[in-house]
Amino acid sequence: MRNKILNAIENHARINTEDLAAITCSTPEVVEKELKKLEDENVICGYHTLINWEKVGEESADAFIEVKVAPQKGVGFDQLAENLSSYPQVSDIFLVSGNCDLMLVIKGKTMREIAMFVSEELSTIDGVLSTTTQFILKTYKKDGFEVENISKDERFALS
Length: 159
Hints:
Layout lengths: L1 H10 L5 H8 L3 H13 L20 E9 L8 H8 L4 E6 L6 E7 L2 H10 L7 E8 L5 E2 L2 E2 L13
Antiparallel strand pairs: 1-3, 1-4, 2-3, 5-6
């Protein structure tokens, strides 16, 4: 039952308990108890709505920030990641392999606002050795959903 619930809400966060009960051959009361348990166990970490802010005229900017760090003895990357998570501009933090240690997703009103955060806040944190900023210019797909219709290039179409 757990996996059926998780699969259903991962793709449709607004699904109601009656529909989940039908999917799991259960009752809404049992589903509500299971959802509460999953939330308490931090299996379900939140519910998400994906909004294309460009469509409503809101100015926003997002960036990927590659961060090279000096891990702290005894805590590795965890303490720095915990510190970074306290900044409201930091949307996501990932420990990654490759040329950097942490990958951050930063959200702001403008590219300048993000640049100021990186130069004045992020780069001054003890343990941060270097950063590389990559601004997101356009989002086509996010969290499995198309945000912008991807038009096919007609130049290569054969008639």
